[in-house]
Design brief:
Blueprint lengths: L22 E4 L3 E9 L10 E6 L5 E5 L3 H4 L2 E2 L3 H10 L11 H13 L3 H17 L4 H22 L3 H12 L3
Antiparallel strand pairs: 1-2, 1-5, 2-3, 3-4
Helix pairs in contact: 2-4, 2-5, 3-5, 4-5, 5-6
Amino acid sequence: MARKPWTWCPLLDDELPFGVGDRVFHPAHGAGIVIAIERPALHEDFNRYYAIQLVAPPMRVLVPVRTASTIGLRAVAIPTAATSALEALQSAADALPDDFKTRQAAIADRLRTGNLDVLAMLVRDLAARGRDRVFSPTEARLFEQARVMLCGELSLALDAAVDVVGRMIDEHLQGG
């Protein structure tokens, strides 16, 4: 049986937005480095995936090349933006909604943006809330997720180890 001709042509390798070695940020998983562009044998030729090694938490994810921009895969921030995000941690916190469901929705919406400044302000706001109240298990998990994602991106942007960046974040949150 002859194959049908495709009307859609995949991007050529030199037209891909990211290449092997590029530092990227995935809004749902965090920051990592593109370690390969794979074509699994189980799929047709046009299905290619970015294989991304995340820095925090250390794991590997596959992102379809054709949907990468739709899901918000972007380049990691430049060092000046990373420094600005660290400074935002020291600014006055914004109050989060008092209603549990509204607060969880607001936190989830801010996490999904994939924006470095929004992520930094979310970590700042959650840290301030954590100083005033005891976190619910959901809030504790969301705070840790936001902090790990921020830590990963800043680590790649500043060329620093994840644990060093984690200490920097903690110092900035404490006003130091």
